[in-house]
């Protein structure tokens, strides 16, 4: 168990250095393409896990008119996985209890000679990038426009991290 915790802390530190530590992202983490569940998290508020992960929870499901029509159970990992695999997520991509809308899925984005799959997600005054490495690691990079972070800079930061992870074999 201590080895697992040490490993998690090392991944958390790596996320901190490459994502929020740059100032271009407010939070960032890693998950597996197999299940979309976050296994490493970091944020500028030092509450990376609280910002990026929430246990399964119920949310109102909205009809076409925007009014609630019932409840839906949200499993955040499955929303990340679905967005990455299919380029869409009808109930949104959920990260840390916050709903994001898929706005731009792209397959085979070239960065420094390596191809990555990416999904850009938006929320009011911010968004997130999901970047999948060829080995199946998904980077989650969250940006906050109220902190003067932009979609472009956070995406570049996330792609650079993906490139680094690719060379680590992840």
TrEMBL record:
Family recorded in the similarity comment: Belongs to the profilin family.
Keywords: Actin-binding
Species lineage: Eukaryota, Sar, Alveolata, Apicomplexa, Conoidasida
Domain of life: Eukaryota
InterPro entries hit by this protein: PFN (IPR048278), PFN_euk (IPR005455), PFN_sf (IPR036140)
Pfam families noted in UniProt: Profilin
Record organism: Sarcocystis neurona
GO MF assignments: actin binding
Protein name listed in UniProt: Profilin
């Amino acid at each position: 168990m201590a080895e697992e915790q040490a490993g998690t802390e090392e991944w958390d530190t790596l996320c901190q250095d490459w994502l929020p530590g740059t100032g271009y992202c407010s939070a960032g983490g890693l998950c597996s393409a197999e299940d979309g569940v976050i296994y490493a998290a970091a944020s500028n508020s030092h509450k990376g896990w609280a910002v990026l992960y929430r246990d399964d929870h119920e949310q109102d499901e909205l009809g076409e008119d925007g009014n609630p029509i019932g409840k839906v159970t949200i499993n955040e990992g499955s929303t990340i996985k679905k967005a990455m695999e299919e380029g869409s997520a009808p109930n949104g991509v959920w990260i840390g209890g916050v709903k994001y809308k898929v706005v731009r899925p792209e397959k085979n984005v070239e960065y420094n000679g390596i191809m990555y799959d990416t999904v850009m997600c938006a929320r009011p005054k911010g968004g997130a990038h999901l970047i999948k490495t060829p080995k199946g690691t998904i980077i989650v990079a969250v940006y906050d426009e109220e902190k003067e972070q932009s979609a472009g800079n956070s995406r570049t930061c996330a792609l650079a991290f993906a490139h680094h992870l690719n060379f680590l074999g992840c």
